[in-house]
């Protein structure tokens, strides 16, 4: 059996985001317990890191062929139509992720041009938004890798 494909940079990014979320949440709980008030920046930063964690984790799942899908139709089809279905699935994923990259980049550019700041910390909003198209582009690459591996028979639909 061949080893499962890996997405090490995305795993590290997801782990780092999770650790930082845990630390700032713990700090907020301790601060609230001691002072009765909370740290204002924690929610804004936690939401941003949760988005990073979600996209990085989704990229790992794509690379490892771990996204949920119903493989009953694939298993029922003969080899030729099965390959066509895998290709169609891959193209749909690439199209969707391409749209996220395109519109996410447009949104980040608009936020940069308008010099919008975040409500909690007053940081440039594009600092948060630029991660959407970047990580969607990483997912797009992982989608292509997964589709090619499935077409070449390197990944089963039950992996």
UniProtKB/TrEMBL annotation:
Q: Which GO terms describe its biological process?
A: C4-dicarboxylate transport
Query: Per the UniProt record, which residue ranges are transmembrane?
Result: 12-33, 45-63, 84-105, 125-144
Domain Tripartite ATP-independent periplasmic transporters DctQ component, chain residue ranges per copy: 21-152
InterPro entries attached to this UniProt entry: DctQ (IPR055348), TRAP_DctQ (IPR007387)
Name the Pfam families for this protein. Answer: DctQ
Q: What keywords were assigned to this record? A: Cell inner membrane, Cell membrane, Membrane, Transmembrane, Transmembrane helix, Transport
Q: Report how it sits in the membrane.
A: Multi-pass membrane protein
Q: Which GO terms describe its molecular function?
A: transmembrane transporter activity
Q: Where in the cell is it found?
A: Cell inner membrane
Coiled coil feature spans: none
* GO cellular component annotations of the record: plasma membrane
Q: Which family does it belong to?
A: Belongs to the TRAP transporter small permease family.
Quaternary state and interactors: The complex comprises the extracytoplasmic solute receptor protein and the two transmembrane proteins.
Job description of the protein: Part of the tripartite ATP-independent periplasmic (TRAP) transport system.
**Record protein name field:** TRAP transporter small permease protein
Q: Which organism is it from?
A: Halomonas shengliensis
